[in-house]
Automatic annotation (TrEMBL):
It comes from Methylophilus luteus. Coiled coil: none annotated. The chain crosses the membrane at residues 7-27, 33-52, 73-91, 97-115, 127-143, 149-171. Its EC number is 2.7.8.-. GO terms for molecular function: transferase activity. This is CDP-alcohol phosphatidyltransferase family protein. It is an enzyme of class 2 (transferase). Keywords: Membrane, Transferase, Transmembrane, Transmembrane helix. Gene3D superfamilies: 1.20.120.1760.
Length: 199
């Protein structure tokens, strides 16, 4: 694999590494500029790893799965940092956060039970959630603002998880890159038609 083709994987790996870095920053050196830099690098890597992979025609199933895993690692680290530095912001929103966590766990349980692996739908709602995760954590960690953007990313996450759960319950077999539940319904209908033609 050429150096250019390794770039998407390097960007994805960078985002995963930054998760523990953000957590360590919260413990050892909670500097707003450092948080802002980490969040910005992670956000840009999330945008450009997929763009570059598609341009190079190497957007494989494995790379898409790693992208989702890297997202989870980074934002778990950011959530840990938020708990260390701003526990009241978490406690003030504890019930919607618990709903979000329950949906995340339920999705993983259902996905592993049904497909024996995590899903990688890259839904439009998840992309919107990613934008608001960035804005919300930037607001909290870099600007010490516990306002509306923190609340918004929690509720957008709940909507995205509900849609992801609906897609998993709709699709018969594991499929990556399913933008919306409507695409999932069309895929299921197409798969049913293929099955009928096979008979």
């Amino acid at each position: 694999m050429t150096l250019s083709k390794k770039l998407p994987l390097a960007l994805t790996a960078t985002r995963a590494i930054l998760g523990p870095v953000v957590l360590l920053l919260a413990i050892l050196w909670p500097d707003p500029i450092a948080f802002g830099l980490c969040l910005t690098i992670a956000f840009l890597s999330d945008i450009f790893d997929g763009i570059i992979a598609r341009r190079l025609n190497i957007a494989t199933e494995g790379l898409r799965r790693l992208d989702s895993i890297a997202d989870s690692i980074f934002y778990i680290g950011a959530a840990g940092a938020a708990w260390i530095l701003h526990p009241q912001a978490i406690l003030d929103r504890i019930y919607p956060i618990l709903i979000l966590l329950a949906l995340e766990i339920l999705r993983y349980i259902i996905d592993y039970y049904k497909y024996r692996r995590e899903t990688s739908y890259h839904m439009w709602s998840s992309k919107l959630w990613g934008i608001f995760l960035f804005i919300g954590f930037m607001s909290l960690l870099a600007f010490n603002d516990q306002g509306i953007f923190v609340t918004l990313f929690i509720y957008i996450g709940i909507v995205a998880d509900i849609e992801g759960l609906a897609i998993s319950l709709t699709l018969k077999k594991w499929t990556h890159d399913v933008p919306t539940i409507f695409h999932a319904l069309r895929l299921r209908a197409a798969q049913r038609n293929e099955k009928n033609i096979g008979y």
